[in-house]
């Protein structure tokens, strides 16, 4: 549906005078930051909560996922009412359709970390300069991106105050006060907050923004073993968010030294991959901080022998980026394709009376819609009904496809005769007749099938995009194919830097290690590093990346 | 319990070597901002998540609610582990015990506004100077308190960027883009965020801080009538948060012109009152913005006659202050007293073996604790068990009293013989024997009784603190009694300013109107303003205030 002129049904004949207007370009000054905004498709809309208006333009996307991915994505997130561009560059508005999905992610993850014994809390947005500077590697990693408050009203602050880019240095001075005995351990805190990183990489809605929402967990343990167990427990939850909730396949692994979190002992990660751009993307990271921060912040406990010991710490974070990865993975040229488990609404019920349908028959149809809605809601299905009389069925189909609803349920005169509904899957377009009597059981099943099929399809796409490479030629060929490269590697930072430089082309950024995957082929003795020819220490997954 | 030396039980004989240490004073530099920190009582603690340590000091409060309220409050919020003072003045850490209550408030309110049709969203933290300046009255109200970001890394920003003190000006430029037709209305958004107001009034944990958490609702309607209906719907929910959830009585009313929100058409409020300090406190406000902002931000819709109309807008907010008001209302010299509905844990179950109890009998007791816990949890009761062997029952009683748990349930050898438990209410100290067979029904009942009794007691305390005054002498006498004054009033801003000046004493701030209460006595024609002698226009509730 790259030609919106053809794809969009005109409003029905009974459309009121103020029928949907064509979208207008956003006001340049207010809406469109100069650098990153592209082909937004944002405009005025009509109809309670409807997307861009009807007439002969406005629904459907002008860009295609295959041909111009970046423009397609920018247009999509605005047209589907997830995002509005904001007049502070690199900041975005999360509109209700996006925020509702973030609430689903929050609910899923929050419940599970609480079961693990993690408690929520809230630490301030601000950090003093002295505290921020406590851990050297850490602050060096973040310093260039830190935003500073220097004024209030018309006055100048005595000392500038940083806005948190992450909260290690906010929290750990207090960890050192709260922890004394081994019985104060483990201390496991989490917070759901905004953070600010004044980055200058190309900002992209969800994927990279200067302010973003996340959860950050910060925990302290008596032993390395306990800390390391939690690192993997959390990583498994992050896998769950991506694979089980968002239907996005990820690779679990460890980051190379060069790519790990500033100040960490080591970083584990779930890495996703966008086939269309051939770029990997870091999904979420779970860091073992070791005793690096506890030594700097003097966080100690007395062990059974009354000896002071530094605690072992972790930190771990998942951001609104996860929604961006999900969108990029599943959406198509008609709009969003939302996995049922994260979709704010899973089913749209559309009655389709004909112009010739008698009023009583229309009423019977509407009553049946209500009845089916209730039956589905009783089963926990999130349903929306579209009974608006001033839009054609075709316009509605396009609208709800743009919004990504997993399943459309139509109820027309023929369906009324047959005591059934027609269902249509967003992911495959497959249609299925479901008798009324089966709606409350079959539709939840269909939603689970859609969820599973979406994940399987994404997994198969990604699996076809990894090439095992033993030489530089194979490596560059894989990148050229927009694939990831799995290579034996000598695990040396200099190699990673050289590879990045040498793989940079006029058209594409250099490749880096995405992770050292936990699941990898055997590495027989004598296997050589694909780049240096030295003995390989491990397998590394490489790719261009976000 | 003002003398902690006497009040605290020594640790049991079997306390391990690293028995609770005496609290240490917080590190001045890190923990205690010079101006506002007082008698914090914060120190090192021992025992998994326990409060300040045992020995001969540390539990119980040094200050009393009656004698030195301010010190008592500051000590209480730290000792009960709600708050830690932070090294940026006016910012506080919300520890898990506090944050869990905020989550209860969020859950209660969020569910209800969603039922009303409000949707959650997230708008950026930052505002450009131009946008902030759009509504003149509004910006004048906030300008002195706005914090400005002027730097990132080592660079200076082209233009300073404000941190939101509230989000009217963040959101409304987008309202003007999203709203076109009357079918785009109502638009009802909410967000749960942090905001920053760099105030110089005395900061107090929860009550007044430079960063705080809140929800802010922002809505737009076609008609004044719909907008005004929502103002009151939301105000009723705010009353519910205070009265039904936090057991804090409030007075609903309208703010005077002088006290209303900067830029509002009018402001409605729920006002609470702290008898010990004789000060009123604004609980939450629901503003009708009228068309003030829609005219400035050009937010219009086309009506049925294709005429452009400015929308009617509301904004409304509830903050973490609500928890502070709840604490001040109910807590006593032993610590917090939490209303069951908001308490993170409602019941503590404590087995009390004697030194002479045989091991099998101890095990039977522990098994019974598990069984009762499960029975209560199945009824939705939030239970904690305290089976630690290195603390005495007395120490545990004091600890859980400090934390404010509504109901203590003891299980000793005698109770085992009688197949019953002994319950003890935190609010009244009343004890009641409950047979095991009745635990799962009687304890939820008791919790509801505690909730109701706490509200009734607070309501009666407040009701005794309002004096109807018809003259200046009566008015000053009421203030002298630490009471609020309900007066007939000519409703003139100059009177309010004069009253504030004239009622200021060397020891006490001046009084202002808290609200014009919705429920007030009749105002017969000819009634005169208590201050000016002019014809009274309405009843006003006055008081010193937070």
From TrEMBL, chains A, B:
A Pfam family assignment: tRNA-synt_2b
Sequence ranges assigned to domain Aminoacyl-transfer RNA synthetases class-II family profile in this UniProt record: 99-339
GO biological process: prolyl-tRNA aminoacylation
Gene3D superfamilies, per the entry: Anticodon-binding domain, Bira Bifunctional Protein, Domain 2, C-terminal domain of ProRS
Enzyme Commission (EC) number: 6.1.1.15
Biased composition annotated in UniProt, kind: Low complexity: 1-22
SUPFAM superfamilies per UniProt: C-terminal domain of ProRS, Class II aaRS ABD-related, Class II aaRS and biotin synthetases
GO cellular component, one term: cytoplasm
Region annotation (Disordered) ranges: 1-60
Annotated CDD domains: ProRS_anticodon_zinc, ProRS_core_arch_euk
Gene Ontology terms, MF aspect: ATP binding; proline-tRNA ligase activity
Biased composition (Basic and acidic residues): 25-45
EC top class, as a word: ligase
Keywords, ordered alphabetically: Aminoacyl-tRNA synthetase, ATP-binding, Ligase, Nucleotide-binding, Protein biosynthesis
Reactions the enzyme catalyzes: tRNA(Pro) + L-proline + ATP = L-prolyl-tRNA(Pro) + AMP + diphosphate
Domain of life from the UniProt record: Eukaryota
Gly residues bias locations: 46-57
NCBIfam families: proS_fam_I (TIGR00408)
Protein name: proline--tRNA ligase
Organism (species): Chlamydomonas reinhardtii (Chlamydomonas smithii)
